[in-house]
Amino acid sequence: YNNAFGASCVRMGSEYGWSPQEHSQGFGTWIQFDLGEPTEVHRVLTKADGKYGWISLYRLSHSMDGTSWKCDARTFIGNHDNWTVQQNTLSPPIMARLIRLHPMAEGGAGGGVLQAELLGRRSFSGFRHAKFVLNQMLQDREFADCKVTCGEREFPCHRIVLATTSPVWRATFKKGGFRESH
């Protein structure tokens, strides 16, 4: 296996590009991109190296921690020649720290060679990501664990949120001084 086609050559503009060893394909073959922190990826750009063939179809998998992986159900159209940059928009975008690109088919002479770029935005630090997840949960009525009644209106709510925002609510929950209705 030639280092000219190793993982370090995958970036656009490299002299060659990345090529799987022995031109294998499928979910067992991949190149991994470590984005360093949770990133919202909107687009994938791919290109061949201009000489040795291209990846014509690929799939993606992604992870936040490198242990638990999710396989994207979509199959993306890759390249059809040695020179054109192919752009695929991810809608919805993928939120991940790690992304694997799995070649599914190749074309041209010499097998598939890939140069790629992932486009997106690093919009979530660890704290901001946790806040994002919490906000998603707060907006989902499935996670509400109590209701507050004010006059004739009922509002779904979360005990943990009430307890952290007000000393009165915190004392009420600690002492059990609340009434639940069924």
From TrEMBL:
Matching Gene3D superfamilies: Galactose-binding domain-like, Potassium Channel Kv1.1, Chain A
Known SUPFAM superfamilies for this protein?
A: Galactose-binding domain-like, POZ domain
Tell me which residues make up the F5/8 type C domain: 1-121
Q: What is this protein called?
A: F5/8 type C domain-containing protein
Q: Which organism is it from?
A: Pyrodinium bahamense
